[in-house]
Specification:
Helix content is 48%, strand content 7%. By secondary structure, the chain is mainly alpha-helical. A two-stranded antiparallel ribbon has the order 1-2. Strand 5 and strand 6 form a beta hairpin.
């Protein structure tokens, strides 16, 4: 009996300690990250985001301590009405306060506008979307991109922007720096500056999460986004993008032209679906045209699209291959080769099979 009493006592003590620890951890996870830090953090909750995804976004922004606890808490209290929108939150808010805001959402604003910028589009398409969804015109967008005072303010505000975006020959200084996502505006009167701020804030979060990795590599942010913007348009799958990145890194390392069609289309402001490039366009020098002369071992002067985080990661962390060539068929399957002969053989094979891509 004494043995059983001692065992029961030990179990009771262990259970009590476990309950105390659980209670302490529960309260810690509910409490604000920093009661004094009231700086507003813009958080975008996309439509159809799962509770787990919302927790990941909040953790990424440093607003909660644990994604798992957030998921556990919402399941425990059967919270399933968190609304997609753009929010201003802060680290001084408790988990309960954050959840309360997400439950209210901004969907009650009849003037609210959602605006989506897909990865891979360029600044001309960004301007078209802004014109369609807000009271701004395309000309308003391009005028803002030519405003040196505005651009210098951005350079002073965001660590990843510098004077390179003001280089002569760059078409649109913020090309590649605006993060593709869905954003929620208070109304159609939102200014171009308001929209760019949302997009730059998102890019800031994404790049800050890998800032240490970028600084370890021999690549600037501008070069990284430029390379990522090409990879975005050339690849579809995650593996393809890493392999394409490998091809480009390999070519740069041996002073070889990137030879990317997407840069030539961008250079001459032609949409890829319009037509094939002419020999004259391909062979004309342009600091964006990596198929033209004087571009051996060089990236374009700047990005040619707005890249996804996956493409940015691929540009930073390419596969380890010795590929120098790739080609895609009409189904967007990508084939990689090591020599020019193998590359040509693959093209002839695709043509023979009727899957060669032609516009």
């Amino acid at each position: 009996m004494k043995y059983f009493r001692n065992t029961a006592l030990i179990l009771l003590i262990v259970l009590s300690i476990t309950i105390i620890i659980f209670g302490v951890m529960f309260n810690i996870n509910l409490s604000p990250i920093n009661k004094q830090d009231k700086e507003k953090i813009i958080v975008v909750i996309p439509s159809q985001a799962s509770t787990k995804k919302i927790g990941e976004l909040l953790k990424e922004d440093g607003l909660i301590r644990s994604t798992n606890f957030f998921y556990f808490y919402t399941r425990l209290y059967k919270i399933n009405n968190l609304k997609a929108s753009t929010y201003e939150l802060s680290k001084s808010m408790s988990l309960e306060e954050i959840i309360e805001v997400l439950q209210k959402g901004n969907s009650y604003n009849p003037d609210s506008v959602s605006i989506t910028f897909n990865e891979g589009i360029n600044m001309r398409e960004v301007a078209n979307i802004i014109e369609k969804k807000t009271d701004n015109t395309k000309e308003d967008v391009f005028k803002k991109l030519q405003d040196k005072d505005y651009l210098n303010k951005l350079i002073n505000k965001y660590w990843f922007l510098n004077d390179v975006i003001l280089t002569d020959g760059i078409y649109y200084p913020l090309e590649g720096y605006l993060y593709p996502d869905t954003y929620f505006l208070q109304n159609k009167e939102a200014s171009v500056e308001d929209i760019f701020k949302l997009m730059l804030d998102q890019m800031d979060k994404k790049l800050t999460s890998i800032r240490a990795d970028i600084e370890k590599k021999d690549i600037s942010v501008h070069e990284l986004l430029t390379l990522a913007s090409i990879i975005e348009l050339e690849g579809v799958t995650s593996q393809d993008r890493k392999d394409i990145s490998s091809v480009f890194h390999n070519r740069l390392s041996i002073n070889m032209s990137l030879g990317s069609d997407v840069t030539t289309y961008y250079a001459f402001k032609i949409n890829m679906s319009e037509r094939n490039l002419t020999d004259k366009e391909i062979n004309t020098y342009n600091p964006y045209n990596t198929r033209g002369p004087q571009m051996e071992g060089k990236l374009p002067i700047g990005p040619v699209s707005i890249p996804s985080f996956e493409s940015i990661d691929s540009a930073l962390n390419p596969s380890d291959t010795d590929y120098l060539y790739f080609v895609a068929d009409k189904n967007r399957k990508v084939y990689f080769t090591k020599t020019y002969k193998e590359h040509n053989d693959k093209i002839n094979e695709l043509k023979a099979k009727g899957v060669w891509l032609e516009w």
